[in-house]
Every structure is written in structure tokens, then in C-alpha cells.
Design a protein that fits this description.
It contains nine helices and twelve strands. The protein is α+β, with helices and mostly antiparallel strands. It folds into three domains: 142 residues; 62 residues; 79 residues, Gyrase A, domain 2 (2-Layer Sandwich). Helix 3 crosses helix 5.
């Protein structure tokens, strides 16, 4: 069972502050009245901290005469946005600077996305003074509201401006004040503990929330960083594995090449060579060349190698005599052009090894 105390601060005469303290406890989601203490002057009080030891939360109701009011019409109705904009709306139309007041708003009407609001405000210094005096009694109100304001709002709204401009205390019988107090515990009409005067536990709760958010953000950043680091390490391993595989494949394709430092560069060079050779092969009808060589075969001669580089052909072979070689050269003049004997040397069994250079006929 949670116990709550409502401090009803009244000012029957100017500068005459009287306290009434009402104790409630929670019951079935509502608040039940236990007892009341007072009336008592604020100093010395008729009740002391031991009597309030089991009270969980304190609520403070200010006299209506302590508050000032303005009615504003704004094109939006979001509560948080209202509290951000209202200080600018009040600037220049109220006497104290807005940084020296604490305020809250009550939405009176909503229409077409906008609203008419009642702004209730008081000076921070006056509120700070009463909070310091209550703190001496170990009382720290979580909510600061006004019972008379609740009762005024429950009256006809068209009379509200005139009622609030009447600074004489509104007469409420004890039962009405208790009922208004019980309703305030459930849903406060206003709460002036905002900004620099906000409730300490609420500030600590906000700070804890911010600290928790900071810790979670750092944890998330650390997880992301670790995940990114793991991915980088894994990517480096994959790259190293690919390089090893590439070197192995390159060595298999070009076993005669040594000290290759950049396989990609050398592979591109080979591809360019292959491409050039492919373009060269397009200039020579290889099938026709082979047919011509076979039909112009000279007895005693044989080809061992045919190489095509661009349009240049290299023919290597053997002949049984110089006469056979000369007949071969003569027979090749029709399918080939610019034939020259590049190399000739004796080989085994008295044969002659030769190398012919020629150009093929264009396609």
C-alpha cells in the first residue's frame, strides 16, 4: 500500500500561509483518504517528519492567488511542442522575463489541429522559497498543482477568464478540497515542478536514462566495431587465399615464368597477347593455308612446325636435298607471299633442317 500526502497551502490573508496536510493511500487503483493534519502555520508546523516517515510521495497545492494566467491560441496541440513555443509567445506580454518563471499549460479547446490553451505561471524565486522551507521539514513535493484551478476549470469555461482574474481566494468547503485533492493525485491539472525546479528524483531518473542510453550506445558501437573488425580480418584472409589460388593457377598456365610479383598484371599482358594473336589469325585463312600446304607437298620434304604471329608465318621442317627444298619454296609462292629462307642446317641421316618465313594471303 502506497501512502501519499497532499500539502494544501492556503493564503487566507496576504503573507499568511496556512498548511493543511491530507494523507491518502492507494486502494484498487484509486486513492482513499486516511486523515488530515492541520491547519498549521508553515513555521512552526503542527506536524513533524516522524509522522510522515511512511509517505512515498508529496503533492503541493498552491493558492490560486500565487498564479498568473494567459490564454493563447496556437496552430498545434502537441504538449511537448506547446511547452517549447509558449516562452516565446509570452515574451513581451508578461512582466517578469520568461526565464524567471515556471509554467504549465492546460488545453481548453481543440479545433482544426490547433488549440486554445491556458498558461498558468508563477515566479521561480517564490516557488523556490517555499520548496526550501518544506525541505527543512524533509518534504520534497513531486507535483506542484492548484486545487482552486481544478475547481475553476470544472465550472463554465466561458466564465473562466473572469474567474481567474479575480484574485480573491475561491471558497471551497473541506469536502470539496479533499475530493479535488484526490482527483489531483490521479491526474494533476498542472505541474509547476519543471525546468530548474524539476523534481530531484525525476532528474535522477532522466540522468540514469541518459547514462543507460550512453552505455547502450557505446555497447552498440563496440559491437559494430568488433563486427567490422572481424569482417576486415576475414576479408584479408579471403584475399590472401585468393592470391594463393591465383598464383597456383598462374604457375600452372605459365610454368616457365619465374619471379612473378603481380599475377594480375602479367595475366592481363598475356591476355593482350592472345587478343592480338586472335586478331592476327582473322587475317589468315588457316584452314585454306593447311589445305594449300598439303596439296603442294613436295616429295622428300616434311613440315614439323607451323607458327602464326599476326600475318607472319614461320614454317619449320626437313628436306632430303637442296633441290627438294627449292621445289617446295617454288610451290608455296602461290598461297604465300614474301617467302624467305631464314635458316638452313644439316641434320641427321643427311637431311636438311630449314626455317621459312612468309606472309599469308589476306582473307
Amino acid at each position: 500500500m502506497k501512502r501519499v500526502a497532499l500539502i494544501d497551502l492556503q493564503e487566507p490573508e496576504p503573507k499568511q500561509e496556512i498548511l493543511h496536510l491530507h494523507l491518502f493511500h492507494t486502494s484498487a487503483g484509486s486513492y482513499e483518504w486516511e486523515k488530515s493534519l492541520g491547519p498549521s502555520p508553515l513555521h512552526p508546523p503542527a506536524f513533524y517528519p516522524p509522522q510522515l516517515a511512511k509517505v512515498k510521495d508529496f503533492y503541493l497545492s498552491l493558492p490560486l492567488s500565487w498564479l498568473n494566467f494567459r490564454i493563447l491560441e496556437l496552430p498545434f496541440a502537441d504538449p511537448d511542442r506547446l511547452r517549447e513555443v509558449i516562452p516565446f509567445e509570452l515574451e513581451g506580454i508578461i512582466l517578469p522575463p520568461t526565464k524567471e518563471i515556471t509554467f504549465d499549460v492546460v488545453v481548453l479547446e481543440r479545433e482544426n489541429g490547433g488549440c486554445k490553451v491556458l498558461v498558468a505561471y508563477t515566479e521561480q524565486d517564490r516557488l523556490r522559497d517555499i520548496l526550501e522551507r518544506l525541505a527543512a521539514l524533509s518534504i520534497d513535493p513531486r507535483i506542484i498543482t492548484c486545487l482552486e484551478l481544478r475547481c475553476s476549470l470544472q465550472e463554465a469555461k466561458e466564465e473562466l477568464p473572469w474567474r481567474l482574474l479575480d484574485f480573491a481566494p475561491i471558497s471551497l468547503d473541506p469536502e470539496s478540497r479533499l475530493e479535488a485533492g484526490r482527483q489531483e493525485l490521479v491526474a494533476p491539472t498542472i505541474n509547476l515542478r519543471r525546468g530548474p525546479l524539476s523534481f530531484a528524483r525525476d532528474r535522477e531518473k532522466t540522468k540514469r536514462g541518459l547514462r543507460l542510453m550512453a552505455v547502450l550506445s557505446l555497447s552498440l558501437a563496440l559491437v559494430v566495431h568488433l563486427d567490422l573488425g572481424f569482417k576486415i580480418v576475414q576479408a584479408r584472409r579471403d584475399i590472401a587465399s585468393l592470391r594463393t589460388e591465383m598464383r597456383s593457377r598462374y604457375a600452372a598456365l605459365f610454368p616457365g615464368e619465374k619471379n612473378v610479383t603481380d599475377e594480375v598484371y602479367f595475366l592481363k599482358s598475356h591476355l593482350k597477347e592472345f587478343q592480338a594473336q586472335g586478331e592476327a589469325l582473322k587475317e589468315v585463312d588457316l584452314l585454306q593455308l593447311l589445305v594449300d600446304l598439303s596439296t603442294r607437298k613436295v616429295p622428300g620434304t616434311v613440315f614439323s612446325e607451323i607458327d602464326v604471329q599476326e600475318s607472319l608465318l614461320t614454317l619449320k621442317g626437313q628436306a632430303d636435298s637442296m633441290a627438294s627444298l627449292e621445289k617446295l619454296i617454288e610451290s608455296l609462292k602461290e598461297p604465300l607471299r614474301e617467302i624467305s629462307l631464314s635458316e638452313m642446317k644439316p641434320s641427321a641421316a643427311g637431311r636438311i633442317s630449314f626455317t621459312l618465313i612468309a606472309k599469308g594471303r589476306s582473307v
